[in-house]
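Forwarding these from the shared drive since the link keeps breaking.
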Amino acid sequence: MKHVRNTSRLVALVVVVLVGAGACAFDPQSGGSGGGGAAPAGAAEQATGAGDTPGPDQHGRPTPAAPTPKPSRKPTPKPTRPATTKTPGAGTPTVAGCPQGQHQRAVETHLARLGGFGAVTVDGRQSAADCAAIKKFQKRYGIRPVEGRAGPTTLDVAQRLATTDTTRCKAGTGTTFCVDLTRQTVWALRGGKVIMAPTVTRTGMSGYRTPAGTYAVNYRNPKEWSNPYEVWLPYWQHFTQGMGFHETTTYLHDKSIGSHGCVNLLHADAVRMWELGKVGTRVVLIGRRPGT
């Protein structure tokens, strides 16, 4: 009798162990994250309705066949072309391949005044020619992204350049580097004539104002190391109090920051001014950067 009882207990124990192991087994579809356990029985079916109990009317009755639909005699409609607006809104792609910015007409006006970027029609509407001209302008002055959109940065740069008065700089007989601190532009003169057209710059930020005045380049180095700020200053041309011209190491059009008094330049402009300058080159700074 004891032998029969022990055998029954052993069979029951094996059944419990097997059932328990099956319920807690690792699910290879869970990805090993430990976040998912075994789903309750019937959960998947409940989610799809496949496990629902059939109603009383479903027992023993065959499902009637669905009637065969008759072919339609209506002609197949012709595809229609999407409607296009004559005056797209800001940021809407146009046939020119460029999105139209909110400052389209103003940018066209300034680019037409500046010249040198291709044909521009001042009408406030994007065209293939306008698109190409704006892209060329953005690429020249390091504006990102180069997409031909007349946005705020493109307008700001175009307006500053178009309104720079090169005659305000009192040039010497030789080469003179001129900086308009108010408009944040820089250009070069020789014998009173412009030899480098106005381009963009960024000078000292608040607390590090670049002072107006007349100076001269007194030291040059194609790659100067800044000890206090631990950064390389390519095409360095010093003119006063540790301040000088050099290629920028950050995005020039980020107005939330500025230099510690230096005149930051785009790469191409820094190279050009290095080629034009020498020790003794006259430096004239006028105006004052807003906010300093």
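-- next protein --
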Amino acid sequence: MFTLRPARDTDRAALYRICLETGASGEDATHLYADPLILGHVYAGPYLTHAPQFAFVLEHQDSGDVMGYVLGAPDTAAFETTLEREWWPALRGVYPDPLDVPRADRTPDQRIAHLIHHPPRAPQDILDPYPAHLHIDLLPGAQGGGRGRALMTTLLDALRAAGVPGVHLGVGESNVRAQGFYRHLGFQEVRRAPGAVTFGLPL
């Protein structure tokens, strides 16, 4: 029913759509964002452009629709440097920095625009043991049946083959279901901050 394959640049629109439709702690965030592309610009597009060999999708065999993805970067620090040079500048010309809007008053779009202008850097104590990071999202119609595990296994195998010693990921503190999924795969919680939990897995 589903085929797991390497992502292609022609999948970009599908990845952006999935990113939006899972953008509220796994739930549909379409109603939250005025710009349907802004989440994808942060959490999907950079990986397809700058780490395509670590991008995999789940495609429905009958419809050909892409229903899920896993995206990774083997060297987070290098990836962040690349994006600062080659990805964020163009987007900063499109999305104004909402610095003049108090944080509590920012719309969801403005909160993401702030990330575009001030992307967080992963802390070194996380990068030392877990230099890679990943994002995985599946639409409801692709969830279950071991498909998320299959996507994760494919990416983790690719990271191991590249000699990566460990991988980390972030998940919303309220997304308990996803946290259980990661723990089941062997990830362990390595940091907790207001609203977010970071997990790590040695490879």
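The domain at 2-202 is CATH 3.40.630.30 (Aminopeptidase). DSSP finds nine helices and seven strands in the chain.

- D.
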